[in-house]
Amino acid sequence: MNDNRVPGFVLTNPGLKKVKWGVLGVASIATRKVIPGMQKGAWCEIAAIASRDLQKAEHTAEELNIAKAYGSYEELLADPEIEAVYNPLPNHLHVPWSIKAAEAGKHVLCEKPIALNAAEALELLRVRDRTRVKIGEAFMVKTHPQWLRVRELIRNGSIGQLKAIITVFSYFNRDRHNVRHNPEWGGGGLLDIGSYPITLSRWLFDEEPRRVAGTLELDPDFGTDRLASGILEFSTGQSIFSCGTQTNYFQRMEILGTTGRLAVEIPFNAPYDRPTHITVADGMAIYDGKVVVEEIPACDQYAVQGDAFSRAIRENTEVPVPLEDALGNMKVIDAIFRSTKNGKWETP
What we know:
With 348 residues, the chain is an alpha/beta fold. 31% of the residues lie in helices and 27% in strands.
């Protein structure tokens, strides 16, 4: 499967100037995954990084070969050379600093979840429309070739009509200093890893759920949800997921249709150094039916995401995950939170 066949799998930049990016903060996701990935891209140049601690910014810049280091986010936003900003700050800072970046005339790629709730996401959307910059949510799965292939298989009827999606996503972390355990900062599993099965289910069913229900188990020390389960009811099927922040590390997604099924081996943290695999099976596969395993060539999903966003800037096209979609995801998350409190189905 090559870059010409898979939309979003961008490997070439025919003579166009790379987009100069600045990064707000030295978060682990940025320094370990996103920055190294974007540096592989044909459309991205990581030109600056900022931290409230200048020494940290300088150390990271030297380590990752970034030309400029700033001791405040404001200094980076004031740099006229920076065209776009990647925002990997803690959840409660996503909207405030994305707004500041937009008002400084910078395009923004913001980590998921885009906001703490739908009201915040709507505020950001209004700022985008006023400032006329591009703002998108960093759901790298939606530009990964394996997911573009899954969506293609569903749309061409390879498994009949899509009926059910079943997802498990979990890891174990009880570090009390981790930002994911701070309720005021938007911690907890539903806002973190729970956002993935929600966005992918909406994307694959190609509609918004009619109603949702959920249940949470709270950590007695942190007050954040450590186990979250939900069900999304669509017009033609359902999506069910469980995500845990204190359970065994695992991830898997099974997609059932009327005549077949798909299994995505590593749906979310796809490795950059080896191929991924999609299993396509027909209705009698558990006995003697047909099973095909498709191999998707290795790629860095953060490089693909960065290039897709940068290309949208250069060509003035829509970003991979626009704020309208991010707002829809937040409405579902809000509804699940409401359901966990009142024990009822909720409409997003």
